[in-house]
Design goal:
The chain is built from 20 helices and 17 strands. The strands form four sheets. It has a seven-stranded parallel beta sheet with strand order 3-2-1-4-5-6-7, sandwiched between helices. The chain has a six-stranded parallel beta sheet with strand order 10-9-8-11-12-13, with helices on both faces. It has a two-stranded antiparallel sheet with strand order 14-15.
């Protein structure tokens, strides 16, 4: 079973992933998490039935602490050996993707949930820009949680467009719509809260859910609220959340909030769903977002939303249909938008209905999770090939193998160029043009490349225009070249290009790909080679089933030492001219599929 490791900086952010484990388990993935230790970790692990590995990480820049976190993350990933990593939040995205790259995780994802650099300045903005670029560079795929965030990241030069994707219509996790609908149960819970919070029935209420910080636009919210009080003396402001030391609001704003009896503050709550039913309008005057979930929850509850045109927030409402967009930082525009909705109950109701329909259709949690699973499957096919298994040739061993291939291929071409020239001349004289044989073959992960060989057959066709059998077209020179394996020498150029390795399963025909069993397809988990385990154990004198079994054995037992052994045996077999062809055939009969070939071999 393939496994995935999610990583976030704070254990509070684990809430993004509630419900993910069961959806991914049904898709055949084992799910694990990495996060800073905190009070939410144990409950999340038990509730989701997953392993959560504690790794201390700080949200702010702290060089020594970050180095320690990177070391711990690298050790954790080496131990867990995931097929996929998906790190979100800025610090975990940076350190996690670097650790995943160091440990050669086959599929690395960075989920971009916002850009802190948008509201930073000076050296801090430069550092944040650099770290975002590193995080994006270290990942194979960058999942942006909203279309505007994707475009912003591209415009800032953080990532290229071809590396990014937005799942479905966006959002971090979608919405469990049923939790927020105005059902009798939810409305009854809201009325109980109304009594406890001392909110008189019938008074207008504007609401906010989240952290009380500058970036969330709390100063503008308070200013707009105070402006509206002149027209709506009974207006209440319901603030669900609390102040934070990071990015604190000005002291004056803090006092205006804490000193106003008509500002209701229940603090952070585990379940926000009933609170939306106490609001007439949900307000989010934010300066930056990835894709805020709160506006979606409010719309699922049937409430109109006023938010800004900031990155991410602009995607969370349909302007004029489910809510109103205003410029970020404009308290007067914010007050006018809120006031227009407070003055028009019918408009609020219509926007509420449209918001419910839109969120249910576009942002249901099941839809977002299905899109996430599809993206994981697409990336694993892209990076792991048809088998979906990680290649054994990864990490430093792959680097060393590639280095040896490059060195040997370069030396071989430098030494053998006179031989290559003579062979080319002989082919040109005896067979004419072309001298080279080019054919598309499946390489590593079944990706096609152009194989080069010296030509060994003449062009000859029957009366219907079909090529004659290989035995009739193979020339005496071609037979001699094949016996000495000289026709394969040009594949040193394929090795130098990175299409092939010196050692690996031979690249067969593209038409064979759909005929492989899952076990036979494993031959593409490693680089194809000029020679291989099959070639030194019988080559074309073997049946197809025997060859595929040997290819799979090589994949499962690969090591640099085994490659050196195969190279040594190859030299001996070339001298002996063993196993060049199967009896009755110039080379090998075509592979027509495992079942049919087995039947033919048994007849």
């Amino acid at each position: 079973m393939n496994s995935i490791v999610y990583g976030v900086t704070s254990d509070i952010s684990l809430g993004f992933y509630r419900g993910h484990a069961s959806a991914l388990a049904s898709a055949g993935l084992e799910v694990m998490f990495v996060a800073s230790p905190g009070r939410e970790m144990a409950g999340f692990a038990v509730g989701e039935g997953v392993q959560v590995v504690p790794v201390s990480m700080t949200r702010e820049i702290a060089i020594l602490a970050d180095i320690s976190s990177l070391w711990t993350l690298t050790r954790a990933l080496k131990r867990l050996r995931p097929t996929i990593t998906d790190f979100g939040t800025p610090k975990a995205g940076l350190l996690g993707n670097i650790a995943a790259k160091i440990t050669s995780v086959p599929c690395r994802i960075y989920t971009l949930r916002g850009l802190r650099l948008e509201t930073a300045s000076g050296w801090k903005k430069r550092v944040l820009t650099m770290t975002e670029r590193i995080a994006c560079k270290s990942a194979h795929r960058v999942i942006c949680v909203s279309p505007s965030l994707r475009q912003r990241a591209i415009d800032l030069g953080l990532v290229t467009s071809d590396k990014t994707v937005v799942l479905a219509s966006g959002s971090s996790k979608g919405v469990e719509v049923e939790r927020f609908l105005p059902t009798a149960e939810n409305l009854a819970r809201a009325e109980e809260l109304r009594c406890g919070l001392n909110l008189p029935k019938g008074v207008p209420v504007l609401g906010f859910v989240g952290r009380f910080t500058r970036d969330k636009g709390i100063p503008e919210l308070v200013e707009a609220y105070r402006e509206l009080r002149a027209e709506y003396p009974e207006l209440r402001m319901l603030l669900v959340g609390d102040f934070e030391d990071g990015d604190p609001v000005p002291e004056k704003v803090r006092k205006q909030i804490t000193g106003d009896a008509q500002v209701v503050r229940p603090g952070f709550v585990a379940d926000t769903s009933p609170y939306y039913h106490l609001m007439d309008v949900l307000v989010l005057p934010t300066y930056r977002e990835g894709f805020p979930g709160v506006p979606l929850e409010a719309q699922a509850a049937g409430k109109p939303v006023v938010t800004t045109n900031a990155t991410g927030a602009i995607d969370s409402v349909q302007d004029g249909k489910t809510g109103v967009l205003v410029p970020a930082g404009d308290a007067s525009a914010l007050a006018r938008a809120i006031g227009s909705l407070l003055a028009d109950p019918a408009k609020r109701e219509e926007m509420g209905h449209q918001g419910q329909d839109w969120v249910t259709r576009e942002f249901a949690g099941d839809r977002v999770r299905a899109a996430l699973v599809n993206e994981y499957q697409r990336l694993t096919r892209e990076k792991l090939g048809p088998t979906g298994r990680p290649s054994p040739q990864r990490g430093w061993s792959r680097v060393v193998k590639r280095g040896l291939d490059t060195l040997c291929a370069s030396a071989g071409l430098a030494v053998l160029w006179p031989v290559l020239g003579v062979v080319a001349l002989l082919i040109r004289v005896t067979m004419g043009k072309p001298v080279l044989f080019r054919q598309t073959r499946p390489g590593f992960l079944a990706k096609p490349f152009t194989l080069l060989k010296f030509r060994t057959m003449r062009d000859a066709f029957d009366k219907d225009g079909h090529p004659l059998p290989d035995g009739d077209r193979l020339t005496p020179l071609g037979t001699w070249l094949r016996k000495l394996s000289l026709d394969e020498l040009l594949q040193l150029w394929n090795v130098l290009r990175g299409d092939m390795s010196l050692v690996g399963p031979r690249p067969l025909l593209m038409e064979y790909l759909p005929r492989y069993t899952p076990e036979q397809a494993r031959r593409h988990e490693v680089m194809p080679g000029i020679t291989g385990w099959t070639q030194v154990n019988g080559r074309n004198a073997l049946t197809w089933e025997q060859k595929f079994a040997m290819d799979t054995w090589y994949v499962e037992h690969w090591s640099l030492g085994l490659d050196l052994k195969i190279l040594g045996k190859t030299a001996w077999h070339v001298i002996k001219k063993d196993g060049i062809s199967k009896d009755g055939h110039a080379t090998m009969p075509k592979f027509t599929g495992a079942t049919r070939d087995c039947m033919e071999q048994g007849s």
